[in-house]
Amino acid sequence: MKFSDAKAQFIQAWGLLGAQWGINRTMAQIHALLLIAPEPMSAEEIMEALDISRGNANMNVRELMNWGIVEKVLVPGERKEFFVAEKDIWKVGTAIARERKKRELDPVLKVLLQLNKIDGDQKDKHIKAFRETIQNIQKFAHQTDAALNAFIKSEENWFYSTLLKVIR
Amino acid sequence: MKFSDAKAQFIQAWGLLGAQWGINRTMAQIHALLLIAPEPMSAEEIMEALDISRGNANMNVRELMNWGIVEKVLVPGERKEFFVAEKDIWKVGTAIARERKKRELDPVLKVLLQLNKIDGDQKDKHIKAFRETIQNIQKFAHQTDAALNAFIKSEENWFYSTLLKVIR
DNA sequence: CGAATATTTCAATAAGTTTTGAAAGTTCAA
DNA sequence: TTGAACTTTCAAAACTTATTGAAATATTCG
What we know:
- Chains A, B: Keywords: DNA-binding, Transcription, Transcription regulation.
- Chains A, B: Pfam families: MarR_2.
- The structure is a homodimer.
- Chain A has helices spanning 3-20, 25-35, 43-50, 54-66, 89-115, 125-153, 158-167, and strands at 41-42, 70-73, 82-85.
- Chain A is mainly alpha-helical.
């Protein structure tokens, strides 16, 4: 396989994966591009490589920076801004987990907590079923939260290696 | 808080969470509705409760059945079909993990495997950076895959309880 | 069988999301 | 202070995805 084909395939696959996870395709593609770039890239180079507009490039690079997986760097002697991706995939994974937890899981936990405080006849089967479901989800969510926090806190690979030893 | 408000809030929160995870909003809302229903519900009741069309209800209920988290049941004496959701949240979680892994992670692993076989000058910094990235992602993906498989296989709660003991 | 009831399909439409590109804003060297 | 180089913004357009509803198909019962 030629390098250029492999590169295109990788960018495409990463874009697809991103799309399925609610990250927009272009954002994931820019990330892919930067992941395999040996040097920092400018906005212009990104636009050119992916054939996207300036606005689109700007917006998605900024979002990648918000997620903490891309950084602006200054190249001495250049006026332009350049960008690099965090290359340690473990760190990328924890950054994404942290961000999604904050944006998605935490608000749901908050709502669930509220929903425990309903009033009404505790014998009504609708109310009983509701309370039971909410409580089960809450339990599950807290466990997930704990596991996720452990993952996020771990800066090294010990999480998985320990885990794998235990579950085999 | 009134029961009807709590119910509406729960359905809305679950729908939002689903949407962020690439599951369509209506599908997640139907799931929420069935999760808290004390009895099986008919298509009609679902349409009414969520104010959606027959086609929409039909399509999303079917998809939930594909995911293995909703089942058709026959109520004696009734001509209509009724639906129930799996109430064990742990099982719901593993079913979702299984399905997403199959649909999303597995194809990416397959592509990555291909991408190792690129030819070209091994000293070229672009090619070196590319190979390194692919290999790192592959390693990470395999670890994730292993963890996910363990989660999916576990029918009981031992996964989390063991995990939590270990990571503390 | 045939009528009544229930379910599924799917083309048209609506809703939602992403992308563009031009204009406005910023920075900085001269 | 000016203007060239660069970045950011945002309304409109393109594209994608979800929803409707009516027609087609299937199922059940007398």
